[in-house]
Amino acid sequence: MSDLEALRKQVNYDQTFDCVQCGYCLPVCPTYETMKRETHSPRGRINLVKMAGEGKIKIADLKEPIEKCLGCMACTTICPTNVQYGRILEGAKEAIEQHEVKSGFQRKTEQFLFDRVFPSSRWMGTLGNAAWLYQKSGMRKLAQVTYLTSASPLNVSRFEKAVPDQPGPLERSLRKHRVRPDYKLRMTVAFFTGCVMDGVFFDTNQNTMELLRLSGAEVVVPRNQTCCGALHSHAGKSSSAEELAIRNMEAFDLEEIDYIVNNAGGCGAKMTEYPHLFERGTYWHEQAKDFSEKVRDISEVLVELDGLEFTEPVELTITYQPSCHMTHVQRVSEPPLLLLNQVRGLKLRPLKRPDFCCGSAGIYNLVNYDESMKILDVKMDDVKEKRPDAVITTNPGCLIQMRVGIERTGLEKKMEAMHLVDLLMEAGPVPK
Ligand code: SF4
Ligand code: SF4
């Protein structure tokens, strides 16, 4: 196979012809709206990939427009010809990653983060514990007063205030790996904890397990599970994503469970896409199909179980910011709204453009901070108009980004951002 043929296979060149250049995707693309350049629109990017596959431009020329894509997939929902933009995007990222010249230090740092930290529950727990120590010991205040936080790499300091108070090491170590309902057992589910969710939003994960248990589900937490691989795919590291998918498929006993439940839109989307990581007809492709069929968002399972009654009124006006990957990849939209409607006292004011990405997109807000904030500002204009007390969402990245948006607009005393699961726990859930 020639180099050009190999590149065409890698970037899914044949699928670029499915785009008929109609432009229906332009109004839904956040980066086209904020950057106002055809090269930063879905069809523009598809064209560039096609040109790279024909040798008309270099792979390096793809880097900027492809890296500025959020991967929100809003373009795929609107596309009349069902262009598989996600495949094209991931192929292009992989090609860019392979051809990019990086310093030894950069490669080693990336290797450490992607191969050691994200996939390791021990590492993520350690980071959570370090954050707890930082918050509790007074170091946080000291770092803020002395502006030490601003010395952190990748704009991390700008997100510091959005991180919730962390539980201590003891609380983390007491996590149960199997919980059973008090009354009738209605199903058995395995809980996918996620790397960022478990490291940063441990309490939300605990609440997730409790809601499932109260609804009548036995919940198991497989010990050998690892990161879903979404962050690796976003970074063009497809072979690492494959390895993680295999580790997860080995960790979950599909015979024992009805569903694999997650509470992070990005992780759920990645796991429903595991079959795309493997060649059709291979052993792992077949395993991935079985695995992905069992993946569900928590909201879907709670609606299906219909086992909760909410006893405490929650007198809040809220708006709901759906996770893009939950909407456009998992195609789950209704269940969170059905659950919110069950909570007494809540007033829901829908956003004008709920499908417009908040700009979080994995680690997009860390590596493309300025562009991410322009997109967030568009989102916050919509949010401010609704004047909610709280913005509800279903993904850790969106949650952090919405908190940053609230802080940017100076509304932190009037508005908060919450995960759907935490709001449901405040509503006094009891078994029906
Ligand atoms: S909507 Fe689909 S077919 Fe039309 S330009 Fe966009 S990607 Fe191409
Ligand atoms: S994935 Fe999102 S940002 Fe990227 S081209 Fe599609 S709509 Fe635009």
From TrEMBL:
Transmembrane segments: none annotated. Residues 9-40, 58-83 form the 4Fe-4S ferredoxin-type domain. This is Glycolate oxidase iron-sulfur subunit. The keyword Cell membrane does not apply. It comes from the Bacteria. Pfam families: CCG, Fer4_8. Keywords: 4Fe-4S, Electron transport, Iron, Iron-sulfur, Metal-binding, Repeat, Transport. Component of a complex that catalyzes the oxidation of glycolate to glyoxylate. The lineage of its organism: Bacteria, Bacillati, Bacillota, Bacilli, Bacillales. It comes from Halobacillus campisalis. InterPro entries: 4Fe4S_Fe-S-bd (IPR017896), 4Fe4S_Fe_S_CS (IPR017900), Cys_rich_dom (IPR004017), Glc_ox_4Fe-4S (IPR012257), Helical_ferredxn (IPR009051). Binds 2 [4Fe-4S] clusters. The keyword Magnesium does not apply. Its EC number is 1.1.99.14. It catalyses: (R)-lactate + A = pyruvate + AH2; glycolate + A = glyoxylate + AH2. Its cofactor is [4Fe-4S] cluster.
